[in-house]
Amino acid sequence: PPPRGPRWGRRAAALLAGVALLLGVGLAGYHLGSPGSGTTASQPIPTPASSGVTSRSSTLDVAKVTAKVEPAVVDITATDGYQNTTDAGTGIVLTSNGEVLTNNHVIDGATSLTAQVDGQGTKYAAKVIGYDDSQDVALIQLEDASGLSTATVGNSSNVSVGDAVVAIGNALDLPGKPTVTSGQVTALDRSITASDDGSDASENLTGLIQINASICPGNSGGPLADAAGQVIGMNTAAAEQGSSDSCSTVGFSIPINTALSIASQIQKGESSSNVHIGLPGFIGVEVENASQAGQGGFGGFGGYTAPTSSGALITSVLNNTPAQSAGLQAGDVITAIGGTSVASVSALSSAIAGYQPGQSISLTYVNSSGSSHTVSLTLITGPAG
Length: 385
Fold this sequence. Notes:
This protein is mainly beta. 9% of the residues lie in helices and 37% in strands. The protein has five helices and 24 strands. The chain has helices spanning 62-69, 104-107, 256-267, 322-325, 345-352, and strands at 3-6, 10-14, 20-23, 73-80, 85-93, 99-102, 112-117, 123-132, 137-142, 164-169, 179-195, 203-211, 223-225, 231-239, 251-255, 275-277, 281-282, 285-289, 312-317, 333-337, 340-341, 360-366, 372-378, 380-381. The strands form four sheets. Strands 2, 3, 10, 11, 12, 13, 14 and 15 form an eight-stranded antiparallel beta sheet that branches. Strands 4-5-6-9-8-7 form a six-stranded antiparallel beta barrel. Strand 8 (123-132) and strand 9 (137-142) form a beta hairpin. The protein is elongated, with a radius of gyration of 21 Å.
């Protein structure tokens, strides 16, 4: 598939001085689904280092830190088979049998994943164990992996402004070993509001570590390490400087304590309103609120005149999906799932949350002529995220 580039494109506004930010862009579709069953792991997710262990230093030996951290870094390639695109990001190996921490936006929308250890090692197929889209955290499994080097984690609660840090990752999806940059922690407890390019949907990320090490597209999901080579954060976003493809010296990382807590919950199969286990069910449509029809926006949905102002307006039907088989078309508005009325995209997501891949649902929609129809669909396994 043609590359779309490194995972970077989600624009955001920081809750500080109106700075514009970037995160990885999501892949095709609004994915509707619910948690599946968890996995049984032989190795636990590591816990943060005990209090006082994390190195609080303003100086560091970059080469020494890199040698310690880099063997646990993986380049991730996410492929969307529906849109025929690929994207690149980074991950952190947490267990020697191949459980890898990354951003949700790195794997969002992927129908298949591959990962290469240290940018030049073995390439593995990977599967999604689970994700938390609200916190931008995901856990994936490298298939048939064993004996991998794992990251040494620190304790992000001990991080201070001025601490020296190293950022490592698949910057710009360059071939070979990961890119390494260094800098300092410039602020703590930052909050940002992020949205995908061209989308009205947004999410809030809080408690982030701000750094001045250069962060580029493709760094998403990679480690932020301290002077002792302990991973204290996961690089996630950066301030826009120039174009959406540029690197930035205003970066943001999810504290490792937060990321590990979510990863542990995922590994244990503990689903919640935010944590999803496994892959979701999928009907194969992109949707926007019918109430916004005619206002312009993502996917060109402004070009449709919705036959009703309440519901989820279909802006695209993907090939070889249940929606296509049922005859749904762009411009139709989904108004009910299983007899439960839906007035918006969020209501549609809530209505379908109790269903699993392989289950059948009844879906009611209004077509462009204003006629209401109900069809039965069997959910397939959807893309990640």
